[in-house]
Model the fold of this input.
Amino acid sequence: MEVKHNVLLFTVALLMCAQFAMSVRRCSDCGTTPVPYPLSTSTDCGDQSYRIRCETGRLRFDTLNSSYLITSLKPQTQRFVIRPANLLPNSCVTSDLPSQGIQLNSSLPFTVTSSNTIIYLNCSDAALLSPGCSSSLCRAYINGTSEVAACEDAPICCTFRAGGSTTSYSIRVRDAGCKAYRSFVNLDWSLPVNRWPEPGVEIQWASPPEPICGSQADCSEGLNSTCGPDPTLAGVSRCFCNSGFKWDPTVGVCVEG
Ligand SMILES: *[C@@H]1O[C@H](CO)[C@@H](O)[C@H](O)[C@H]1NC(C)=O
Ligand SMILES: *[C@@H]1O[C@H](CO)[C@@H](O)[C@H](O)[C@H]1NC(C)=O
Ligand SMILES: *[C@@H]1O[C@H](CO)[C@@H](O)[C@H](O)[C@H]1NC(C)=O
Ligand SMILES: *[C@@H]1O[C@H](CO)[C@@H](O)[C@H](O)[C@H]1NC(C)=O
Ligand SMILES: *[C@@H]1O[C@H](CO)[C@@H](O)[C@H](O)[C@H]1NC(C)=O
Done:
């Protein structure tokens, strides 16, 4: 409901700006899902630092060594949710253990948000030294969830809130640490386990800078901007908004004001 509403609002905003949005092209829909600027499914639209993939009508997010289905998108807050890897049959190991779980490229504008509650499963003894590993929340989760029944036989589990400097680019599983994980977005701790939401990992994208230009022609069509050198990045030029306009990163245009 909320997602639908947000998408609608976003569409209305886009339509209102359509006449100004010629230079920075929004990517076409993926199946029925709108692809908001700056996300890019192709080299000729969006911002190329914000690559995601459209595959058979569904959006996917590629991490360093793995790939995840995008299950929902919220353009206003610059966030989307991916479906975490499944557990291998009858074992307490997630299928992305070989790629060490979710590892984002820290040079790209995507981060794991602090709205995720991460439950690490099948951890080594060494994990017990971490504060989140003595809580009983993860044991209650295992006890109440058939999907992770195999984890009953793995004694050590941990619960963490994601985000902050150390976890913002990864949800790490590995042989020497924890071998499986589940994640929940905006989890209400007071709910009984059987009323927890579907697992998900929320990812946020940083506001995109002005689009790169080769010449003024790339900034034409009423973007109300001028192609000029980027003061922070030598050799790169961008379409900077003319005076009286400011860059609106959520729609990718210069707006009055
Ligand atoms: C825990 O992970 C190891 C892999 O390191 C696996 O062999 C073992 O079966 C897992 N434990 C359970 C209970 O699935
Ligand atoms: C990711 O893939 C690269 C190249 O395939 C490999 O060198 C690297 O070890 C992998 N990293 C992880 C964490 O699996
Ligand atoms: C991470 O992203 C940067 C910027 O796009 C890219 O140059 C680099 O090759 C990426 N690193 C890996 C390991 O994919
Ligand atoms: C495990 O679940 C059962 C029923 O679902 C409940 O009776 C029991 O108290 C739970 N045990 C723990 C340790 O949470
Ligand atoms: C901004 O773009 C709009 C649409 O093309 C145009 O009508 C308007 O004159 C432009 N404003 C300036 C200051 O260039």
Residues 64 and 103 are 6 Å apart (CA to CA). The mean pLDDT is 87. The chain is about 10% helix and 25% strand.
